[in-house]
Design brief:
Layout (H helix, E strand, L loop, with lengths): L1 H38 L5
């Protein structure tokens, strides 16, 4: 029974880590797009 609880906990932990990673990646892409758009107006 203990191994099933450990497996369930690890599964939940990996799902949370995956969601967090996808969120971070999306934020990075948004920042790059915003940065690329503002360069056209003379901002550094």
């Amino acid at each position: 029974m203990m191994i099933y609880m450990l497996a369930a906990a690890m599964t939940v932990a990996m799902l949370i880590a995956t969601a967090f990673g996808i969120s971070q990646e999306a934020e990075k892409v948004r920042f790059q797009e915003k940065n690329a758009r503002t360069k056209g107006f003379g901002r550094i």
